[in-house]
């Protein structure tokens, strides 16, 4: 019976035949039971030995069937995979099936372009946590506890009143400085959060791109050079900008670099609040207290920093007249910016 089983097992090619084979040998009316039934007239000794042997055989058959079942399952999965195999990196195959390839979000497209511009000028790219503590968001940036500037940015605080969702990417300055010795220069793009009402140019979650350069004898002229390079590379055409004094506790002097609104051409619209100008790129020379917090000696080194409003830059570049489109999740909106 053992040999008979082995031959039959070798011929089994799929799971259902295996189930049948099992019934054939071990089922109620199966071959093994038939032998056991025929033992009822045998002597007690014969019954005992044959009984033991048939139990052993039953165990062997069960083990073999289990092994074969696992092998068949694997085989069948592999066969199915071979038939349904699809190269999802092969775009035209997706297009053939009516599926369109994904694209980058416009904020990502512009962020990558800016990263390329700055890395080509020797800047590093840094990241930082969205959940910050109040030291890096305020204290290290020369905004002590009682300073009214804390109210300039409406903050989402955690219950412990020690942690918060970062209100600007300037925390990346504070963290970046700690781990470096001058000279250094880096940018830090990312999401920031403010408890603000939304309108055509304001969101509660938006993107900024921080920049910082620290070294010897850095001047406002250096700062303006980098800002101009950034804008001319992004727009590839003359854009009207204006520089005016701006107050931020972490820079001195501080500036606001505004761009003439490209949605209305400067005549006034909801994005520029009828002013013809959009606040885009605040910047300035790093305050000595900020350098000190970053273990940089302000008598030896100085530097500049800027905090670009990335969503607004994207709006100006593509002529988007409401920031809320960017976060709408509307596929027909974002698919206009496909890069491939
Ligand atoms: C800051 O956040 C400073 N940390 C920038 C800075 C960095 C100054 C380094 C000096 C040196 P401000 O709050 O103005 O500054 O925001 C910077 C830019 O982010 C604005 O010019 C604007 O373009 C953008 N921005 C601000 N609030 C919003 C908002 N609610 N929605 C969309 N964009 C915003």
TrEMBL record:
Residues 102-316 form the Aminoacyl-transfer RNA synthetases class-II family profile domain. Mg(2+) binds at residue 252. It is an enzyme of class 6 (ligase). Keywords: Aminoacyl-tRNA synthetase, ATP-binding, Cytoplasm, Ligase, Magnesium, Metal-binding, Nucleotide-binding, Protein biosynthesis. One of its GO terms (cellular component) is cytoplasm. It catalyses: tRNA(Phe) + L-phenylalanine + ATP = L-phenylalanyl-tRNA(Phe) + AMP + diphosphate + H(+). Its cofactor is Mg(2+). It is found in: Cytoplasm. One of its GO terms (molecular function) is phenylalanine-tRNA ligase activity. One of its GO terms (biological process) is phenylalanyl-tRNA aminoacylation. Binds 2 magnesium ions per tetramer. It comes from the Bacteria. Pfam families: Phe_tRNA-synt_N, tRNA-synt_2d. Its EC number is 6.1.1.20. PROSITE patterns: AA_TRNA_LIGASE_II (PS50862). Tetramer of two alpha and two beta subunits. NCBIfam families: pheS (TIGR00468). Belongs to the class-II aminoacyl-tRNA synthetase family. Phe-tRNA synthetase alpha subunit type 1 subfamily. This is Phenylalanine--tRNA ligase alpha subunit. It comes from Oceanispirochaeta crateris. The gene is pheS.
């Amino acid at each position: 019976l053992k040999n008979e089983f082995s031959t039959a097992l070798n011929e089994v090619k799929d799971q259902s035949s295996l189930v049948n084979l099992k019934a054939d040998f071990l089922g109620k009316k199966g071959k093994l039971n038939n032998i056991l039934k025929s033992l009822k007239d045998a002597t007690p000794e014969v019954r005992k030995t044959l009984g033991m042997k048939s139990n052993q055989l039953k165990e062997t058959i069960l083990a073999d069937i289990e092994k074969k079942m696992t092998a068949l399952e694997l085989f069948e999965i592999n066969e199915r995979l071979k038939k349904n195999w699809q190269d999802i990196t092969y775009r035209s195959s997706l297009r053939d099936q009516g599926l369109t390839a994904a694209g980058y979000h416009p904020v990502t497209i512009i962020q990558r372009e800016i990263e390329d511009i700055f890395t080509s000028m020797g800047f590093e790219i840094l990241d930082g946590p969205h959940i910050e503590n109040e030291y890096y968001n305020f204290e290290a940036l020369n905004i002590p506890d009682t300073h009214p500037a804390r109210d300039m940015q409406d903050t989402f605080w955690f219950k412990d009143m020690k942690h918060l969702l970062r209100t600007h990417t300037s925390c990346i300055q504070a963290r970046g400085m700690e781990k470096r010795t001058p000279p250094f220069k880096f940018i830090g793009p990312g999401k920031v959060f403010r408890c603000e009402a939304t309108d055509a140019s304001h969101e509660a979650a938006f993107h900024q791109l921080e920049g910082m350069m620290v070294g010897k004898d850095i001047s406002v002229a250096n700062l303006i050079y980098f800002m101009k390079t950034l804008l001319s590379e992004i727009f590839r055409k003359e854009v009207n900008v204006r520089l005016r004094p701006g107050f931020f506790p972490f820079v001195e002097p501080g500036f606001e670099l505004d761009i003439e609104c490209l949605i209305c051409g400067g005549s006034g619209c909801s994005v520029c609040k009828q002013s013809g100008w959009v606040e885009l790129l605040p910047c300035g020379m790093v305050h000595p207290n900020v350098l000190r917090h970053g273990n940089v000696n302000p008598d030896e080194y100085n530097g500049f920093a800027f905090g670009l409003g990335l969503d607004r830059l994207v709006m100006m570049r593509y002529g988007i007249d409401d920031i809320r489109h960017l976060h709408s999740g509307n596929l027909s909106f974002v698919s206009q910016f496909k890069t491939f």
